[in-house]
């Protein structure tokens, strides 16, 4: 009888322990799953955490003058770089640059290697699904450059010809949807411009805002098509769900607009590289 009671008592204790353990892990799992992974990331990399660690990780280009590149003195310069320095100054932290290519900007955020992208990042519906864009600070559309000796001045001239683009750009996205255009794709801006110089394609398509600057430095080429496709905007981008940094960035863009910072940035970083035909209002948002 005593053995039976002990057995029943043991079974009851085990059952109670099982309920407690199940409840604990159920609660823990619920806690883990509450909110998206993006929102959990946001808590770890929001403004308060950035201030605590003392630096902001900013993704920029390293080979795209006049927006983001390393000059002959080994210094990072450009329109986006100038903006990055001002933002970190206002945030009260130091800056750490993360160099990116056009096709790895989103991955850089998703892998937690950067807090914000300032790399001439055009807002598109597809990108809105994977990152959160702040307010825009530039306007842009796709342009096409070609040799002056064989200018491409209309989309019809691109049929059955090779068009050079960089992977992950709006130019690639736009012309991928056009018929009879053969795209020659590269990983970086340096590679695509070298391909054009080497005659590997009839033309090159990219954001018109820096094609203007490139042809000024390379006078054998011309912007035959100044604008094609929809008008678009350049914005900072943060990881999806990072509401804290997104909110701060939106306030910062509004503040800088009121202070005419982007006119200052244009005059310092862009004007020397653009021709006389380009006005500040062609690039920045008034």
Automatic annotation (TrEMBL):
Pfam families recorded: SBP_bac_3 (PF00497)
Native source organism of the sequence: Lactobacillus acidophilus (strain ATCC 700396 / NCK56 / N2 / NCFM)
Family: Belongs to the bacterial solute-binding protein 3 family.
UniProt name for this protein: Glutamine ABC transporter substrate-binding protein
Membrane-crossing segments per the record: 6-27
Keywords: Membrane, Signal, Transmembrane, Transmembrane helix, Transport
InterPro entries the record matches: Bact_solute-bind_prot3, Iontro_rcpt_C, Solute-binding_3/MltF_N
Molecular function as annotated in GO: ligand-gated monoatomic ion channel activity
Superkingdom of the source species: Bacteria
PANTHER family: ABC TRANSPORTER GLUTAMINE-BINDING PROTEIN GLNH, AMINO ACID ABC TRANSPORTER PERMEASE
GO annotation (BP), single: amino acid transport
Domain Solute-binding protein family 3/N-terminal: 55-272
SUPFAM superfamilies, sorted: Periplasmic binding protein-like II (SSF53850)
